[in-house]
Amino acid sequence: MADDVYIPGISGKYNSSETIKRIMDAKKEKLTKFEKEKQQIQDEKKSWAEIKDKSLSLQTKAKKLYNFEAPFDDKVSLSTDENSFKATVKRLAEIGEYTIEIKNKATSHRIASNPLPRNFNVPPGEYIINVGKEKVSFSFSGGTVDNFSDTIKKYSKDNIRSTITYDTQNTQILILESNKTGKENIISFGNDKTKELFKKMNFFEDITSYDKPFKIDEKHLTDLSSEKQPLKFVEDGVLLLGTDQVYKFGLSEKIPYKEKLVMEIDMKTQILDPTKRPDEITPNGPNFSKTGDTRIFDINIEGENNLINIPPNVKEEKPKDLNVVDSHYLEIVTNKRTVKLDELNVDATKNTLKFEMNDLISPDETIESVIFKNQNTFKKLEVSNLRFYDEDSKVGVKFTNELAKGEDSLIFLDGLKIQRNTNTVDDLIKGVTINIFEPTIKKEKLKIDRDYEKIVKTIVEFVTDYNAILELVRSKSKIKMDDNGNVESRGDFSAEYGLSSLTSKLRMIMMNQYPTNYGVELTTLSQIGISTDESTGRGMNSEKLKSGGVLEINENKFIEKMEKYPEGVKQLFGFDKNGDFLPDAGIGIDVEALLKSYTERSTGFFDSKQATLDRNIQEKDKEINNYKDKLTMEEKKLKEQFYKMEKASKELQENSKQIDNWSNQK
Which pLDDT score is estimated for 282? Predict the structure, then answer.
């Protein structure tokens, strides 16, 4: 049977298909109602998913205001010449501004051979190439310069870069470069086999080294102190200078000027405890006062007078708690003058200090002695291992083609001269790493400050999420009435006490007072520029809180308070009340704790609500499917009934025609 119940020549008479359609359309109105109800549940589920997502977002941002991600201690650096240097900072970095001047950047040692024939053969053997204290050793089976260069790369462990340049069609140049910067990391050759090969390739020529070490001993020391004290040595060759001690050390051999002359000396300080320093006591002198006066029978008889007029002994008062700090420890005496060195970076760790003499003396000068002095009140100074050497002849060779010398970076930080063998300097300022790119043209500034941009951004994101929750609940809780006062539509959250309770509690958290170390000066958000009426300057408005509670931020006021009370602003969002180093009070903690009961997986308010909606959708699907099955059966029954009616009508029509035909035949 055809679905449309069409019988040629007959079906059109009764309009069976149209009639069935009209009947079924009427019945399908109930199905449409079911589907609309399902869609409403699905829309409501989307609304709950949206409020859950926004709550999770606010919960995460609230936690970031008091946990290890809290931005209040984050620092940022500002360089006035970012082409020359930048700095990265850690949270522990101290806020401050520094003057910085970069004279040199650290460079790598780079040397080359003279042009070599293309068929130059490197003999087999054991080779050792040094980069500073690192040793690169390898066996080579013999072969071309290319083979030799590849073997160096294989065993270098990133210490040496080996390349070949073809300067002509027939010649080649082998180039070696240290992968480490600094004077300490120059390239040298570790055994006779290696020296023989590289000398043959004209990498270097032998020269006589110049190295003059001096042992500091009593014989060559002269005490220049204003108040002489016994000479002391910590150990053999290590001189100890107490407070206000000055010694001149005469060199047993005078040191002439050389272009690359370097002076080295080991120094360290001992810190004294000022509370244990003995007070000076002036001993009592003889009593020269007049004695023997007496009075007898109202007659006064004078005693003996002093033979000479000696003024009374008066103890000189010295200023109390005087603490002299002076980092000028060295002077160099030449045949023409005394050169006073700048302040030196000497601490309780033994350090080897280096000085390039061409910066300090002239070519016509000869060094005769060195003066050690300690003018610090609460420090002692240890001095040892004085040495002069020629930097160029330090390794006993002169490189033929030294394309780049291994140089240290030279920095002046607030006037203090500092040398490092790297361009990444992380030991000058606590928590700060200075990255050097190029020398500066002039003195520049490095500023370390709080990362206000990040702090403000974090607060803005927190407040934005808070406002978004309040606005979403408000907009989806509306009830729309028609002109007759009847309910026309209800928002998805219109009857949800749980959400109205949530927004009410959130508003109270934003208005509450919280403990900080600054008492009443800093207890609320409105005091740091976050309130419902910040645009008018009226602070937190209780009426606006009840009606909406949307917050505004005055960024300038917030930064002003952050600068004045950095720790206090931080404590508003997370404060350690019981001293266990874990925050247990504050806006961030309260918001995170409140939202946790709503957002907790499976058992939280939102997931429980969504589970209920999922069950409602399943029940509605079942109801729709059952009704669809019912409609299908009813439509099928109607089609069968109409088919039978059409068929009976056709048979009746055919029978009528037959009767008419019989009648006509008669």
Answer: 44
**Is residue 410 a contact partner of residue 103, using CB atoms and an 8 Å limit?**
yes
Q: Smallest Cα–Cα separation from 560: which of 594, 529, 592?
A: 529
Q: Give the chain's mean pLDDT.
A: 86
Neighbours of 89 (CB within 10 A): 20
Count Cβ atoms within 10 A of the Cβ of residue 259 and give its class: 0-12 exposed, 13-18 middle, 19 or more buried: exposed
Mean pLDDT on 506-517: 93
In SS3 terms, 179-242 reads as EEECHHHCEEECCHHHHHHHHHCCCEEECCCCEEEECCCHHHEEECCCCCCCCEEEECCEEEEC
pLDDT of residue 17: 78
Contact 140, 128 (CB under 8 A): no
On whether the CB atoms of residues 180 and 121 are closer than 8 A, the answer is no
DSSP run (H or E) holding 559: helix 555-564
CATH class of residue range 212-274+323-394: mainly beta
Backbone angles phi, psi at 407, to 5 degrees: -120, 150
Q: Helices 452-475 and 497-511, interaxial angle, to 10°?
A: 150
Over residues 74-85, the pLDDT tens digits come to: 999 999 999 999
113 half-sphere exposure, CB direction, 13 A CA radius = 23
SS3 423: coil
- Judge whether 104 and 409 are in contact, CB under 8 Å: yes
pLDDT tens for residues 187-213? 999 999 999 999 999 999 988 888 899
Task: Report the alpha-carbon distance of residue 489 to residue 531 in Å, rounded.
Answer: 33
In whole angstroms, how far apart are CA 524 and each of 435, 510, 528, 546, 656? 41, 8, 7, 17, 100
SS3 sequence, 448-488?
A: EEECHHHHHHHHHHHHHHHHHHHHHHHHCCCEEECCCCCEE
Choose from 14-28, 394-408, 447-461, 567-581 the range with maximum mean pLDDT: 447-461
Question: Does this model's pTM top 0.85?
Answer: no
Nearest to 4 by CA among 25, 14, 23, 18: 18
CB atoms closer than 10 angstroms to residue 121: 12
125 CB contacts (<8 Å, ≥6 apart)?
139, 140, 193, 197
- Which residues, listed in sequence order, are joined to residue 189 by a DSSP beta bridge? 129
The Cα–Cα gap between 426 and 198 comes to 37
pLDDT tops 70 at residue 540: no
pLDDT > 70? residue 473: yes
Q: What letter represents residue 236's amino acid?
A: D
Digit-coded pLDDT (tens) for 627-666: 888 888 888 888 888 778 777 777 777 777 777 777 776 5
Report, in this order, helix, strand and coil percent for the chain, each rounded to 5. Answer: 35, 30, 35
Domain boundaries, the chain: 75-106+408-449, 109-206, 212-274+323-394, 452-601
The closest alpha carbon to 344, from 353, 334, 336, belongs to 353
